[in-house]
Every structure is written in C-alpha cells, then in structure tokens.
C-alpha cells in the first residue's frame, strides 16, 4: 500500500536556523497520526510543508502519492487543511464560505449544493447557514473550517492545533467529530498539538517533536512499553525527580520498600512524563 504521507530527511531552514531538522516519517492510509511538541518545535512548519504552503529546504515529501514540490496542485486536491489561525471569511455567511471554497475547487453546482448541505449538517451547522461567521462561537468556527476542508472530498486531513483556545467541552466534541470522521470515512489524519490528552484520546500513532527533531514515535502502547507505565515521584527541594517503572504496581512495590517515603508518590506515567524524560523540559 502506498503511504498516505511520507517525509524523508526533510529540513527547513529559516534565516540560517534549521527549524525542521532531518525529519523522516511515514503515515499509513486511515491512520490518525499526532505530532506532539512544545511551541516552536516545528510542528506548524511541518504541516505547512506537507500542505504545499512552504517548501522544504532539503529532503523529499510525498503526500497521497504526489511530490509536494513537483505536483502541488494534485496534492492540494487530495488534502483538506485546518490551520491554527481561523482562515474563514468573517464577513461572509457560513453558506457563502462553503460556496466559495466549493467554487475554488470547481465542484459542479448540484454536487456542491448537496455536499455543502451534507457537511454543514454533519458538523451541526445547518441552522446557522445564513449567519455571518463573525457571529459564531470559537468552536463553531472551527467546525466550519473542518466542514470546508472536507468539501472537495480529500483523502487526507491536516489539522494544525485543532482545539487550541477552545473550552474543554467544545474540545471534547471536536475530538468526537474527528474520530467519527476517521472511523466512518477511513480518512487519514495528521494533527499537531501540544495537548497530550488530545493525542492520547485520538491518535493511532504519535510523534514527539522538539527543536525541529522527531525525538520519538510509535503507538501510545509502544511508548509506554519503552519508557514505562508507572512513575515514582520524589520531591527534591522545589523540583521533582521521576523514576520510571514498567508498571504502576512495580512503582508501588518500589515505594513500599522505601524506609522513608517522605515527599514520594506514585502514579501512572503519561506522555508529558515521557517528553520530560527525553528532553528535561515540560511540554508547555
Ligand atoms: P510549532 O508549530 O511547533 O509551535 P513552528 O513550526 O511554528 O513551531 O515554529 C518553529 C520555529 O520556526 C520557531 O522558532 C519559529 O519562530 C520559526 N518560524 C516559523 N515560521 C517562520 C517563518 N516564516 N520565518 C522565520 N521563522 C519561522
């Protein structure tokens, strides 16, 4: 099977600084892949290169079987893109935004009308079609962005920080929509985030990025197998030391065996712990 997305030794240099550094990665059709990393890690730049909005300085990128540099138009017809900044037109109505996008993609009128109706309905926006976008809440704007990104029937959806700035309830609703889209349409998805819960909830595989480099990748299960599922935390002055254990019960056994348990506790390990272990820093 041809990979949905493949990057081979990709570099992006801005002003003599390598912001994406030797990134190699393959995403299979139907996968939800999450790129997790702190601000400035190079996640958005990676998405911009994958979606033909920026060109790599070096390396090869193939999306839906097309070379992003040589076959940009074909790539664009195969992908849907939801960027961080809300890119819908605030002074147009919900319907007009969809209509405009549909025309840009040369979707014939009858199909365009039917698909706009279908996606607005799917995203729960049917009762807002005549409203100007500026009157929608942040969550509904994001849903409109997704509806619009899906209108030309892409096989791969790119989502750059899809839930940043949304309240927890709206975020969870969007997660459900994303997961449902993946399951019902078999759509490949690449999303970037700095919320570990987001990748834990949504992603089949995870890549952890830091300072332009992919420092770890695999399924959540694989990452836990490699780094540990249980943690003993030890307070040392104003900071914590972390000890990883293969399981939480082994972490508990270790704690039980300590003569002095002051300032010590155990808990399940999460992705943030793995990030801290790899980089010595927090995700935020
Ligand atoms: P992330 O999405 O992980 O927060 P970005 O890809 O936005 O990271 O940024 C990675 C680095 O590249 C940052 O240091 C940022 O300042 C820099 N960068 C991003 N876009 C540009 C640009 N157009 N020109 C110069 N530097 C940029």
Automatic annotation (TrEMBL):
Taxonomic source organism: Leptolyngbya foveolarum
PROSITE patterns recorded: ABC_TRANSPORTER_2
Name listed for the protein in its UniProt record: ABC transporter ATP-binding protein
Gene3D superfamilies: P-loop containing nucleotide triphosphate hydrolases
Gene Ontology CC annotation, any one: membrane
Family stated for the protein in its record: Belongs to the ABC transporter superfamily.
Keywords: ATP-binding, Membrane, Nucleotide-binding, Transmembrane, Transmembrane helix, Transport
GO molecular function: ATP binding; ATP hydrolysis activity
Subcellular localization(s) per the UniProt record: Membrane
UniProt-listed Pfam families: ABC_tran
Keyword ATP-binding on entry: yes
Domain of life: Bacteria
Broad class of the protein's primary localization: membrane
Membrane topology annotation: Multi-pass membrane protein
UniProt domain ABC transporter: residue ranges: 5-236
